[in-house]
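Researcher: Next entry in the queue.
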Amino acid sequence: MTILIALIPMIGWGLMPVVARKNQSNTYETMLGTTFIVLFMTTLLFLWNGYSYSFSVFSLCMLSGVFWGFGQLFQFEALNYMAVSEAMPISNGSQLLFTTITSGLLLNEWLTVTQAIQSLLCLAIIVGGIYQINKGNMEKKTDSVIKATLMILVSSLSLTLYVSITNYFEISGSLVFFPQALGMTVTSAVIAFSQKKATIRAPYVVKNWLTGILWLMANISIFYSIQLIGLGLAYSISQLAVIVSVVGGIFILGEKKDGAEARNLKIGSMLMIIGIIALGLNK
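Model: Structure for this entry, 283 residues:
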């Protein structure tokens, strides 16, 4: 059962960017649609369970949601410059890099020097896979590729903080969801409505209800997984979402790959899978 729970984020987070692009909504419509449904569902959960919060716990959980808001902003923006099957390996890999280092150094999940070295070697394999997948783009070094890559790295750092902060302060999973969703929604709304040139179309906001459900499904399961098996291992397993994103980008969004690109994608994906599995086994 623990493994099944740990695998749910792979599906939810893997499909989320695919569905978001399929909806053809802009970044702000996607964020609003996602967070509105998440806030609605977590409010029901909050009312059902009748949780009470201290100011510090509520604030930290909200801050987690704020980090998510900025993380998703940059991730969705990056998808305007790079295909899902190219962007998400960078996103998943860099999140895994930041989260593994965070869990090892700050959460003391590296018990020995040997374990730390092995984890870093696994990360090197994952980074190699990311480079292989995006080899063509990296060699071109166009403005759009550089811009998208920088956005993804900022996004990954923010998303690492979103998933790490509550774990660092040992706040249990079920307490996190409502104030976190509130932080997500407020941040998304402030970002969206502060953009004077942005067009917010209500039908496209509504279309992203499934994006919200997918994210909520992944989020709830990842926080429970963290409690069961630790941040490092739970997040390692969740980042197998890269497989879902790559496959979804090609078969659902119709992202075309020529011979060299297809070969690089296969080799890079295999390297990432090997690295992620090895990293998980090293926990």
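Model: Residues 1-281 form one domain.
Researcher: Noted, moving on.
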